[in-house]
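Service request form, structural biology core

Requester: graduate student, group of Dr. S.
Request type: structure prediction, single chain
Budget code: on file
Notes: please return the result as structure tokens.

Sequence provided:
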Amino acid sequence: MHPHFPYSLRISSIAALSAALLASAQAQEKITYNDHILPIFRNACLNCHNPDKKKAGLDLSTYPATIQGSENGKVVQSGNAGGSLLFKCVKQTEEPKMPPKGDKLTDQDLSIIEKWIVGQLLETATGKAVATAANNVQTAVVSLTRPDGPPPMPGQLPLEPVVRTRVTNAVTALAASPWAPLVAIGGQKQIALYNTDTLELLGVLPFPEGFPEIIRFSRNGQLLLTGGGLGGKSGKVALWDIKTGERIGSVGNEVDQVLAADLSADQQFVALGGPNKLVKIYATKDGSLVTSIKKHTDWITAIAYSPDGRFLATADRNGGIQVWEGPTGKEYNTLPGHKVRVTAMSFMTGVLASSSEDGKVALWDVKEAKEIRSWAAHPGGAAWVDFSPDGRIVSCGRDKIAKVWDQTGKELGKTAPFADIALRAALSNERIVAGDWTGAIRVSAIDGKPLGELSANPPTLQDRIAASQKKLTDAQAALAPLQQALAAVEGKLAAEKAAPPAAPMVTQAAELQKQLDAVSAEIAKRRADRATKKEGTPEYTAADALVQGIKPDLEKATAALAAAQAAPATPAAPKPSPTAEEVAKAKAAFDQANAQIATANAELGRWKLAQIFQTVHNSKRTLADKQAQYDGFVEAAKTALAPVDKTKADISAAEKAIADAPAQLTEKETLAAQTRATAEPLSKAIGAAEAALTEKEKTLAGMVEAAKKMAGNVDELTKKLTAQTADIEKRRADRATKTDGTPEYAAADKLVQDLKPEIAATEAAIAAAKAGTPTVESAEIKAVLAEVAKMKETLTASRTEAKAASDKATAAEQALAAAKAGAEQAAKQLADLRAKLPAITKTAEAAKAEAERATAVTEKELAAAKADTEKRRADYDTAAQAKL
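Core staff response, request fulfilled:
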């Protein structure tokens, strides 16, 4: 035991959880809204997102409001942080970056928010997780041929529009099924489905995200894709099953409207783009983002997958077209594109069609990255282009006309001009369906013959019923007078038939005789008038012309009578009875009125039946909501006592830890003491070794310095000796010039003899220096150098050993300190758990009772909802059998 650790503290730690237990509990702590997220929101978000100031309709001050989301939809997706708009905004990877003013959230706060979303959005530690949204999109087999069996068509779908507006919006989303007589048209917050053969409305699909901007059918015609949203606010892509009308998935949680999107041939991926200039590819299975490609420099306006799934083409407002590998999103090639905005693209195998505001439709070989051909399709700008399954091309544009082409650019047909720019067109079952800027949608034959009109803004069922009822009432009101008129003329005809026979039938000869008599009388009259005129006068000439003019008639009548008299007499054909003609006309009018009544009745029955079906549809949704509510209460009742069980388990764990604490604490104290006992001698030894090394290095330094100094003295003496030798030689030369025995010679010789003792002294000094002092390279200094090196090596090894021992000692001390702190804290926590257990139990039991009460109430409501749904379904079946 550590000598400074009081025994009393050690005893108190026995009544606590160990530090290891605390660390484990902290590691398993659940991230909840109440405990972790709300404090972050208070600090950074609630100034703008509170009940009084809901910016973008988003209130983050309460859990329900946060889960509900903003006016543009949900901002958090359970289990999917990367797909949650809120997380992307606070992480500042997408606009709008949050908070807009002030510092970005810390990495720790971002990590907490991410863990909360991934952990399924818990409100409290005992709360229920929010179910992770799951798509139900099945992988499809890639095929370039028509699927076997009948083409997918909508079953029984709701016909009530989601929105009915006063005016229609421009047609910005329209597509035809590749195999069925079916067209989908985007309206405000809805998609209308029509049969292109009968022009009958088949269903309305809700798109609450906003305005559809792009509609595509899957390659097999089974799924419908719609992308859109609200400009500058939000965007999403939704997927429906055509047969059932069920929304089976959605991808994207964009901060701006989706302008372009397509579904891969195998239905595994959706590629989308818009004003943010990014191409995003999402997995349809779970809606997760697979990749985000930043290549385009302007808004992305067109996206298309190839039918075989090998390629993905994307285009932008600058006219650029980029081709990617479909499965990987890897860059494949760049097409020269157009000079201005690419408005649409469509694929056939290996061939890409594009339209542009430059007015052209172009065909591209995507493998070779070259243009096959192009032609001026629509003066002023081409707004749309699409391939039909048989390879024909339909386009439309600013010339207000939709046209059909073959792949050589030959025009095969076109519509009559619209009132405004033709924005979208599709070819369905030999019919052109096209819409313009005013919202008008026409169906035409390929030769341009108008066949009917459709609407993205269909009337409500109530309006349809009212219109049909008025039509029926008017037709019924018109029927009574027609029936009376028919009865009157039928009575008149019956009376005529019941009257006595008329005079005998006039023969043909008699009739011709009457005609001859009439002509004869007329010519006699004209001759009499001529006789009153003076011959040769203009009056006579005019009267004579009248006589001459009628003579041919007299001749014809005379000849006809003669021929009739020569032939056997036959009765003249009876003239049609005027009354019978009146009866026929009255009968036709009466039948037409009955047909109108029958038509109005059929329409009225259809819309009433659709209205009844709408109640069935609504009741099913209510039932589903009530079932989910009931299941939630059942689960809440089942898990209500979980906090009690958890608290009891924590108490049991604490009690076990209390029992284990003495041995664990003793073990840590022993280890700390052992590591200190090992580290301290090593530390002292290192100190002594360092001191010895210092002394040895000082000795070495002195020896080296002395050697260097002495080496400097020898050099100086040698230089002096050289100078002295030169000087004596100079003196000897001077002496040699003198005569021996003369005073001059004696003086010169004295100078020579005076220098010799100095030279001898210098030579002796040099010899003494060389003999008494070592050099820098001497053996003595090398030996000391070796000793210093050895001491350093030994010291380095000792330091390594000492550091390892010191680290162990430090770790042991820290573990011991943590154990002490944990022991003290655990004692408080254990007492707190025991104190809180009754309240937790009471609250949990109350919650269980409330959940059971709510379950019972909801069970009755659920039963009532089931009964209501069954009744409405039965009413519908009865009405359907009665053929309302």
